[in-house]
Amino acid sequence: MAVTDILTVETTSTYVTMSGFDFLSIDVTDPIADVDDLISAVDVMTEAVVSGASVLGALQSRIDIQSDFTAELMDTIDKGIGRLVDADMNEESTRLKALETQQQLGIQALQIANSNSENVMALFR
Length: 125
Prior knowledge:
- The protein has helices at about 5, 35-125, and strands spanning about 10, 15-20, 25.
- The chain has one domain.
- With about 120 residues, the chain is mainly α.
- The longest helix has about 90 residues, at about 35-125.
- Helix content is about 75%, strand content about 10%.
């Protein structure tokens, strides 16, 4: 439960009233005001500030955790994209090597075929 759900502070020039707590309607101009009531009012206000600060701290912690998670997720995605690009480049490189090898084998086959026909022609001379 948030402090604002149970505590409302109203101030005028002469009174401090805190709704939610019956004993905290204090006339600050009255010299006979009960010091215990004033101390209680300050304690309640201090608790409200501490409670608010702890809520803010918890929210800041959540934001930091989400920010770290998002940064790590972005790094992981970047690495994954890099690996996909590298894999695609490796695949294309392998295809290129295969085509070059086929071309070299074709050239060698033609050279062998040409040299065999020349050898057969030399036999007939």
